[in-house]
């Protein structure tokens, strides 16, 4: 993912205009061209007079010649009431290509759906005062060929008096518009040439997330998390086909309302300098009759200050929604039906390990390339789906 | 979540103490606490050794012996002092004389800089006050191992470079003794090397010139030194203009226009030595100089709280 992120942490003052001089600067020092030797002051600083026993050793001129060419300065600003403001402006661009979305309409292989570009600008603001109260709000937009979304959020967080615990509440709303692109054989009339011709539907999601985190002691931190989510609108997907038991075909039809309540508990245990254990459990229930449990544990072992290994295991189980039936099992007389296996009963195991290196001088000696993580996981789902997942995470500064 | 901090304190060993009349903070990263404390002791011994060489409070220091025989005769000193004077002279030439170790000759009684001052002295009086300041009159005989101040009454002092030199020497010693990560902070002239125990670069803040106990910005650094000089406390307003206690050695007048200067470079001695001259030279000449030197960054805050930086600083 290519992500351009622009962080402005409070604009302290007007930006640099390095040579827009104010009249307060009335010195008799003049700009002058430095000699080559002067320009190389740092790398030649001790070569010139190498008789200084206290300094000539150690540091090594090798490092001094490897001068970094730029520095990143992070500004923070406290306002008159001593509150710290933070602004984040992010512009994300994802260019992705997906094979399965082409199957919606085989004739449009080269259309926008085979390689969509998504644009999602967002603006978030937050302010924290000295008493440990944080207020925040944000706005985001996301747009792709068949999907447009507007998100708004507001949050409030309060630290406990001794700052060891924090309670937070976040309210979010996503107002989505989707184009109903039916599978090609189910479209009536002529194939729309213009994208405006597709019918649209709306889907609105509202959520309230509550969390409470507490540092119990130096070793143990816990957090309780719960969400209440309400969705309304077109909740299926128009290109999920249904084959009924009488041989006819349609697309999935699901209720227009869904109410979800996940409740979770997370704990981190810091056992000495080199081992961190993290555990997580979540129970999920929704109004379509889906109940699910997730439990996971991971251990992060720091083998050296620059290398760590993180084995992990996750177990997940759910019963199916009442509207689910497999291929050619639905009766066309039913009100709601889906054959999406994500809504069927199954359980899964996911296990593997991550390997993370943060060398002091950068990965492969490239100082800007400061973290490399390779994660391998094997995913086994009870309805015979298996996957091996390798992901690579790099950080470039 | 504060995971990083929990892991961090376990293998960072820090001591704060007064050395060279300033607050020093020495941090060593190691799994072995006893070993780290021993290394901190080594660093303290090194800084105390430098303090004895450079102090002007002890009549018998090498520095004071040079001053005592100013205009009389060359004084034999250690190779370390000769090398330090030679490097200081290079910085004086580089900064057109804004940095000058003979600044110690400023006649303090003539120049009653205090917060009640309401007028600047006239140019001639001011000039007279700094007449003995001239780095070109420090005669170094490298082969003979002597230093001679040509004019009677001249004095040298290492106030503008000594803390940085001490920080650099302490770091260098610690590295030779096997400390792969640490910080030496000599009252704000600091040098960092290696990484934090969690593998991250060190985060270093720069104080807000209006509220010295608050940070206005921070940087992620590894193997780098940062020095800041500012006129946070000592300044006066004359005719609505803010003047600092820093005096331009070429005119004898206090400088104005800049609240603080921070210099970033791999060498703490250079970082320390260049902050004051940039303040004296002013934004235009100062930044023009910094921009031409490889591997140095500079952040200036002027009296109007505007930030000026060298070209290699990216503001995030």
Question: In words, what does this structure look like?
Answer:
Chain A is mainly beta and 397 residues long. Chain A is built from four helices and 19 strands. Chain B contains eight helices and 17 strands. The longest helix of chain B is centred in the N-terminal third of the chain and has 22 residues. Chain B folds into two domains: 194 residues, T-fold; 88 residues, ApbE-like superfamily (T-fold), CATH 1.10.3980. The chains are: A mainly beta (397), B alpha+beta (316). At the A-B interface, α2, α3, β2 and β3 of A face α1, α4, α6, β9 and β14 of B.
Compact overview of the structure:
The complex is a heterodimer of chains A (397) and B (316). Chain A is mostly beta strands and 397 residues long.
Give the SSE map.
The complex is a heterodimer of chains A (397) and B (316).
Chain A: E1 3-8, H1 36-39, H2 41-44, H3 53-56, H4 61-65, E2 71-75, E3 77-78, E4 84-97, E5 115-128, E6 133-144, E7 147-159, E8 165-179, E9 200-215, E10 220-233, E11 241-243, E12 249-251, E13 257-271, E14 275-286, E15 291-304, E16 307-318, E17 346-357, E18 369-381, E19 386-396
Antiparallel strand pairs in A: 1-4, 3-4, 4-5, 5-6, 6-7, 7-8, 8-9, 9-10, 10-13, 11-12, 13-14, 14-15, 15-16, 16-17, 17-18, 18-19
Chain B: H1 3-11, E1 12-19, E2 22-29, H2 33-54, H3 62-68, E3 75-76, H4 79-94, H5 123-129, E4 138-141, E5 146-149, H6 162-176, E6 182-186, E7 189-193, E8 202-208, E9 211-221, E10 224-230, E11 235-238, E12 241-247, E13 254-256, E14 258-265, H7 268-281, H8 283-292, E15 297-302, E16 307-309, E17 313-315
Antiparallel strand pairs in B: 1-2, 2-6, 3-5, 4-5, 6-7, 7-10, 8-9, 10-14, 11-12, 12-13, 14-15, 15-16
Q: Looking at the structure, what is the overall shape of chain A? A: extended
Count helical runs of chain B.
8
In N-to-C order, the SSE pattern of chain A is: EHHHHEEEEEEEEEEEEEEEEEE
CATH topology value of chain A: Porin
Reported for the largest beta sheet of chain B, the result is: 8 strands, antiparallel
Task: Look at the structure and name the CATH superfamily of chain A.
Answer: monomeric porin ompg
Instruction: Please tell me the total number of domains of chain A.
Output: 1
Strand content of chain A: over 45%
- Class by alpha and beta content of chain A: mainly beta
Terminal CA distance of chain A: 15 Å
Spatial strand arrangement across the major sheet of chain B: 1-2-6-7-10-14-15-16
CATH topology of the largest domain in chain B: T-fold
Shape verdict of chain B: globular
CATH superfamily (homologous) name of the largest domain in chain B: ApbE-like domains
Mean pLDDT of chain A: 71
Q: How many domains, in number, for the residues of chain B?
A: 2
Assign the CATH class of the largest domain in chain B.
Alpha Beta
